[in-house]
Every structure is written in structure tokens, then in C-alpha cells.
Amino acid sequence: MEKDKRMNHNTRKRNSTTLQGGFSLIELMIVLAILTTVIAVVTQGIIQIQKNSASEVDQVGVAQESRQFMDQILRDLRQLGYPGLAMFDPTTLTSSTDCTLDSNVACTGPISFSSTAIQFEGDFDGSGVSEVFIQVVVPAGGSCPCTVQRGTVSKASYIGGGTPAYYTELDYVMSQNVFTAYKFDGTAYSSSTDPLTSIKNIGVTLYVRSPQPAATGTSITYPTTTMVSEARISN
Asked: What is the pTM for the complete model shown?
């Protein structure tokens, strides 16, 4: 009887040891597969969050640069033509009829105008009359994204043959037609039929693309910032 009890006890002990054994190879493979899937999903989520963050930062940067450029050009256009001939004693002027001949006088209205470039003059920073040139630079391929550049030179230097030094104001501009002009009666200005002196309002339209694609969806898309404004010039 005692022997049978010991045998039964040993049998139960062996069975318990067998039940408490480690994972089988199949179980380990299943666990590893699950862990790999979870890690892949978490990693992909982190990467997507980083892409979204970078895309949002780029969009904010483009909007800020566009706004700064728009504010600058509108401020310049509103001060265009200062000081004018009427503010001077005619006897002190190089020419009392032609403002282009006097470096101390700004001609009212733009000096040249097109949808891609504009030239005007005035005392914009209190240092004397300057010529301001703003132009859209199109790549060699003939299509945008383009660059908007701004250049200045003192009128005295310009009269003597000086040329402006250009600086990039805005990249990734998606339209070459940045400038529009309207006459005193509100109709659109036409360079082929209307004189420059008929321009009363100048509009600025910016379509600026983000340098980085959006982080959503499977197709590649680039967010675009659009800004439209208009300045009334004092001519």
C-alpha cells in the first residue's frame, strides 16, 4: 500500500512538471510575430506623426514668408511717388517738368509695369529716393515654381547707369502673373493701350507652394498658400 502511494505521488509530480514546462517553438514564433506587428504599427505611427509635424511647420513658414513679403510690397506701393515735384521750389529742381531727371524727386506712378515685373520709386526708408524693382524669375524650363526677387538702387546711381542688387524675397511661387493694375475708373489696365499714369490701384496675387509634400494620403500633394491684396497708389 505504501509503495502504491509513493508511485502515485511521483506520477502526479511528473505530470505537474510537464504542465509547468516552457513555451514550445510554435508558441514563441507566434509571440514574436505579434510583437513584430505591434512594433511595426507603433513605428509607422511615430513616423506619420513626425511627417505631419514637419508638413505643418513648412506650411506655417510659407504662410509667414508670404505675409511678410505681401506687407512689404504693399507698404512700398503706398509710399510710391514721394516726394513729388509739387513739394519743391521749381527753381531748385534739375527739371521742373521731368521728374526722371532729378535724383531728389520721385515720379508718381510706376516707372514700368507688367504682370511679372514692376519698377517704381520713392523715399521708402528716409535715405533718399530709390528705384525699387520687383520681378518674377522663371526657371530655364519656362514654368514655375518661380522665385520673386526685389532689388533697389538709389535714384542718383540709377540715373548714372547703376543697376540694382537683387535679393530673393519668396521661393516656390506657382504663378508668373503676380501683378495686376486698375485705372481710375476701376477697369483693368492694358499696357498696349493705356499710359502708366492711368494706373491707380495695383493688385498682388501670390500662390506659394510648400517645399514639402503633405503627409496624408497615398498621392503626393503640396499645400499651397494663397494671398491676394491691393494697394492704392498716390498719383
From this structure: 0.75
